[in-house]
Specification:
Structural class: alpha+beta
Number of strands: 24
Largest sheet: 6 strands, mixed
Distance between the termini: 80 Å
Radius of gyration: 53 Å
Number of domains: 4
Shape: rod-shaped
Helix content: 25-40%
Amino acid sequence: MSGMDRKIEKRPWYRKKIWPTLILLLAAIATVYGIVLYPTESTMKVDRNRLTIAPVRQENFSEFITVNGAVQPLNSFYLDAIEGGMVEKRYVEEGQEVQAGDTLLRLVNTALLLGILQQETQLFEQVNNLRNTKLAMEEKRLSLEERLLQIDHDMRELKRNYSQAKELLAGEVIAQEEYDQIKGSYELLQQRRELALRAYEQDSIFRSRQVRQLEQSLNRMESTMDLVRGRLDDLVIRAPVDGTLSALDAETGANKTQGQRLGQIDQRGAYKIRAAIDEHYIRRVETGQTGVFTLGGEEFSARVIKLYPDVANNQFEVDMAFEGTPPADLRRGQSIRLKLELGATEPALVIPRGGFFMAGGGNWVFVVDPSGETAHRRDVSLGRQNGDFHEVLGGLQASEQVVISSYETFRDVDRLVIR
């Protein structure tokens, strides 16, 4: 090897790759740091005409729900078949006005008629037997009274004879034996009268008790006969009250069983509202709460008077009575839309209801910048609601602008650019 030649030392492999590795590591750190401090926002451009923007404002807020109701009679009277039978004649039609006592239907029941005739025959026999017994007791009373009268008559005769015999005996006109005979007859008749009088008194006590019981039995028999005859009257269906015959299910010749519903009469001029409410509010609706509605350009109110706890098709029902003068010319089945208040009116921060609630469930909204050119997603807390507003509990301030239209097409977007 000459003096000009020099040995070149080979560098370690790791010294060749250290700089590229450091560069890549620094780039990765910078990327992560940028993501943490400056997260990437997903942005979407939206035409302003597609958005509904409303301000956040302070309002007097009352929580209410909108419910649908139907006008119904305040009182309805049902017509049931007290006795079964075949419809012989129908006198009225549905929708007619009827007066209390008007004949609506006539039923016929041959088996019932025969049974009543047999019962009447049996009752007549029992009544006759009771009357015969009462007559026999009366005859016995008369016989005892007649017997007492006869004894009293005989005693008066014997008493006169007895008095004369005393005088004759004193004047020695008659013998002692004859006097004793007259005296004995008089004393015997006195004893007989005492026995007859005692028998009459005992019979009078017994007879008065028996007569009273017989008269009570006769009265019961006659009442029973009235009830038996009344069963025939039950075959005639009459209107119990004045009103409108809203239903009548009884065609001529049709057979109706005992207790079967035949029709309905609605009380005239008195109405209520039967409203259906979502079961979500079943614990918040109470009697006394008020609902308002507009009909014919005039506002009316109605008060909850009854709650029905049964839930069907995710709804429960309430009855509401009109407060003050009800609307004129109401009709059964007429639809009414009410705002039912669930709480008292008080100041609150609110935003209008809108389609935004469906996408985010009220947990976030798009808040418009003061420039009006962008809107950023922001978490919020919403509370009560009514048919017009949501109550704002947190996340928004009065005078801020919020997008309240549907978020369906940009539910995963963080920022809207409004064009």
